[in-house]
Write a structure and sequence with these properties.
Elements lengths: L4 H35 L6 H16 L3 H20 L4 H19 L3 H15 L4 H22 L8 H13 L6 E5 L6 H12 L2 E4 H9 L12 H4 L2 H20 L4 E4 L5 H14 L3 E7 L2 H11 L11 H10 L11 E6 L4 H16 L2
Parallel strand pairs: 1-3, 1-4, 2-3, 4-5
Helix pairs in contact: 1-4, 1-5, 2-3, 2-6, 3-7, 4-5, 4-6, 4-7, 5-8, 5-15, 6-7, 6-8, 8-15, 9-11, 11-12
Length: 364
Amino acid sequence: MSAGPQDRGTNEMDRASSEFATLEQAAGAVLRTAAEIAASGPIAPLSQLWQGAFAAARAVVAPPTEQSSRLAAFALPTLMHLEAAPRSAQSRAIAHTLGAAVAELRAAGRAGAAAALSSLAIEMAGEPSLTRVLPFFVCLEAMVRARLAHDAGGVGPHAVSSYWQIAAAEADGTTGPCLVLCGGLSGSGKSFVGTGLAATLGATIVGSDRLRKELAGVAPTARTPAEQNGRVYSTRMTDRVYRRLARAAAESLREGRPVLLDGTYLTPERRAVPLRLAQEFGVPAAIVWCELPDAEAAARLRRRFTLGWAVSDGDARVRALQRRGARQPTEDEYGAELLRVDASQQPAELFERLLPRVCGAVRR
């Protein structure tokens, strides 16, 4: 007897849940390795590591001069940014370790898995600022592996040239200023999707959940006390949060950088302010709208409350309230390209399908 629609849906949910659990284990391993590196002693200055890796990889690959120049030019802004605002030893170690894992996954042709791992590791670490610099670290670690592959005499799963091409692809795929709104009802997976996209694009990500708690004086991963819910989730506070999101978007666009805003953005009025900003700055914009069946969303929301690193306070009751006033985006909102996402897909598959669409929308 063939499975009915409900059985097939349950099977898909089980597979997605199983892959997410595997992904969570992998992200945990990345963070544990990073903690060991951070505890082992100081890491060499970043500019020194970059120059050494670049020179060594270029010597064994002998790429075209033009390609080398693009790669060097790609690295310079991030080096300047990181020197102006040095990261903690822990944050730096996570960037190196995650960059190495992403380089290996991309060398194996698994770009979707790389984005999914990046998203979960960054969320679990509570380090959203890593999305801005991760492409640089992927590039750096890929070049390190190019030289290691050469020194191993070509023995191993990937060729020297494949690692160099991963590094070069980061430079060739550099994303200019653009705006991405990642929205949807609570529990729709928008933060997971948004973080993976931002990490791939090298975009600054600003999330409404984290920003709300910052403004309210609540620790990001702490549950908001019941007696404070009325204030923290009032219309006044929500308006304040979305004004701050728009201000952060304007700052990034003014600097010529891509930015991703992670919030529900349930009405045209909420979406209008940042989308008009994109028009004013003359940059491409996309709305990534995450959708998930209520039953699966409810299961995810319940699980989220068991995670020590989750930020959102949203639950099934909040989702039901949001649905009443939600007005989904249309195809013609201020020139933004609308990309609908079935968030019930397995994580790697989701990003494998979504990344080309988003890159096509914002790199035009």
